[in-house]
Amino acid sequence: MKHRFLKKEDKVYRILEETEEELFIVSCERQEMPCWITKEGIPFEDETLYAFDGSLTTDQKKVMRQRYTVIADILPVMTDKKERSVRIRRAEEEYGISKQTIRRYLWRYLVYQDIRILAPEQSAKKELTQDQKNIRWALNKYYYNRMKLSLISAYRLMLKEKYTNEEGNLVEGYPSFAQFRYFYRKTRKLQNQYISRNGLSYYQRNQRPCVGDGVQEFANHTGVFMLDSTVCDIYLVNEQGQVVGRPTLTASVDAYSTLCTGYSLTWEGGVYSLKKLMLHVISDKVSHCRKHGINIIEDQWPGRELPGKILTDMGAEYASETFAQIAELGITVVNLPPFRPELKPEVEKFFDVIQGYYKPYLKGKGVVEPDYQERGGHDYRKDACLTLEEFERVILHCIIYYNSRRILENFPYTEQMLTNRLPPFACEIWMSDVEEGNADLIEVDEEELLLTLLPRVKGTFTEAGL
């Protein structure tokens, strides 16, 4: 019935379905949904309503397929008016397209019976005028570069180069700044603007859009640890009261439960801090806290195993051969691309939260404020009064609170977690996942880990010895 039509009162209808007594038709002239009518003995006519000429571009095919996907679920129930309305409303919510637009797609497809009718019309490219070419030249030369000139400066330089005579006077008919600004706003692409004016690395760090489902794409169970380090915003002193500097905090955070599985507080980073971090991950946290005068139970800081996967950035210590030897224990080490902090957001947020805990209480004792190194700013080194050991005790209190009392508001709880009334704390989620057998953890003793992380060199035995 692909080419069956009927004419009724000089109006053309396409027949979509036929029974013994009724016809399901759609108007070929008025944009309205199909309906059932009673047969009246009107003769059918066979004709081709539309002929497609030429081929479609890649962009047209892409839009065509997207529009067909919107209506694909509605086409099988076109004859059922109630179910059709339900599915149109569902498509509106799912694809964010108005009901009127969905009905227009349906009508066009039903009338022409060809998916190509859903392709958008290809607009002809307009040739740029000479003024527009000059404006584009000025934008590329004076605005989209590291000089970071303002828009008005680029406009004035364009007038000087393109619209002045030999005597240095402006010629008649030069474009106004409003025209210059309009062409800039019409043609600009923010991505190109950010990269050309600030550089690719700055764009990737601070201005690149974040898309996807984040951590849940690759960490849907316990056992994926994110490693990173940061310089703490506080100055410390030694035992004699002399200012030493700002310590480096290196941490390991489980991507699924956000539990801090270990930390290392040292004066310098590097492979040594990673070695200390890995040893702390497999150590007994209860005894470690007791050494600093803090009493906890194991449920407040669980975990004494290494993960099945470690995510790090391209730091020199993480990309070193010594740290890569940890893969011999069965651990998969994934080095993320540079300038991609959003790929390990849990450990980045950990540093932000921990420092937000202690800063209000240590203000005036060496904590660095936002006006650090500004002209006329306060020298926070003069306020330093805590030693590394005292500050580590503060850090331990913050980590214990982070693991056992911080409420996880946006965690994707399963139905079983809700049924069991699982408390929304990182330590509880960790232990629940381990008890269910979903965790990917590796038990390693301290001696085996130490031998694995020892630096290695290749030696050669000759007649003179090693």
Summarize the structure.
The protein has helices at residues 58-72, 81-95, 99-112, 130-143, 151-162, 177-187, 190-198, 200-207, 271-281, 285-291, 321-324, 345-358, 388-404, 415-419, 426-435, 446-452, and strands spanning 4-8, 11-18, 22-27, 35-38, 44-46, 224-231, 236-237, 243-245, 248-254, 260-266, 306-307, 309-312, 332-335, 441-442. By secondary structure, the protein is of the alpha+beta class.
How would you describe this protein?
With 466 residues, this protein is α+β, with helices and mostly antiparallel strands. The protein folds into 3 domains: 4-118, no CATH class; 130-207; 216-452, Ribonuclease H-like superfamily/Ribonuclease H (Nucleotidyltransferase, domain 5). The chain contains 16 helices and 14 strands. The protein has helices spanning 58-72, 81-95, 99-112, 130-143, 151-162, 177-187, 190-198, 200-207, 271-281, 285-291, 321-324, 345-358, 388-404, 415-419, 426-435, 446-452; strands at residues 4-8, 11-18, 22-27, 35-38, 44-46, 224-231, 236-237, 243-245, 248-254, 260-266, 306-307, 309-312, 332-335, 441-442. Strands 4-3-2-1-5 form a 5-stranded antiparallel beta sheet. It has a 5-stranded mixed beta sheet with strand order 10-9-6-12-13, sandwiched between helices. Strands 7-8 form a two-stranded antiparallel ribbon. Helix 7 (190-198) crosses helix 8. The longest helix has 17 residues, at 388-404. The termini are far apart. The relative contact order is 0.08.
